[in-house]
Amino acid sequence: MQNPPVPRTVKLGDILPSLASFDTVLGSLKSYRLWPVVLREALLDKAISGIACSGEEMEESWALWCKRNDIDPSAPVFEGLSLAEMRHAAAREKRIEKFKEQAFTKLLPEYFRSRKSELDRVSLEIVQFQHQAVAEEALFRCREGEQTLEAAALELAHRDGGEPHIKNVGPMAFRRLSASLAALLTGSRAGAVLGPKKLGHFYCIVRIIEITEASLDGRTRQRLLDELLNQWVEQQMSAMTGRAPRKTIEEG
User: Fold this and answer.
1) Which of 137, 157, 235, 251 places its Cα 20 to 30 Å from the Cα of 116?
2) Are residues 204 and 126 in the same domain?
């Protein structure tokens, strides 16, 4: 049996005739589900139209763009773009960064306060018991300082039908905890031992190992600026298209 012929390499010139007019380009963008992406980028172009970059900023953005895209600045090659188009893309990213700073920096303190409880992170030790009475005994021993939670669980294992299920969780954002677990932790501090709480099929004792409170440091600041920018874009897109704004807050 003969092997099927290998398809020849498609060249850019083979594709361009099918995108020769505005109507065909527009139709293709909509059928490829790229129209929202184009609207978003056009909206950003409008927003940054009055923002300029200094020569130093242009060179800095070019170096960062090349590094981010793993490009050799001395011989740049990227997605068929010319050098001028690549430099334009790098400068555009810088101008968007400047727009974020100018438009949303003043909103950061209040927005951070509204998001802080979701950005705080917690590390937990969770021990699962089959029987509530055994869980209560382990909790008592731990709170009285007789034993660590793990030691108490191991010593009481013979009364609980086998080896206890002990696991460490986190650090993870509070918002990723189950509603029941989050409710148990509300108002507690690091070192607290809580429970027993029926979670699923088990009676659980939870020890808070550490709570790391979020601060408005550089990384968090950039994350929140991105969220504010995306919320603004979604509001503008909603006004233009009539659809409801999409969720823009990242998990984690």
Assistant:
1) 235
2) yes
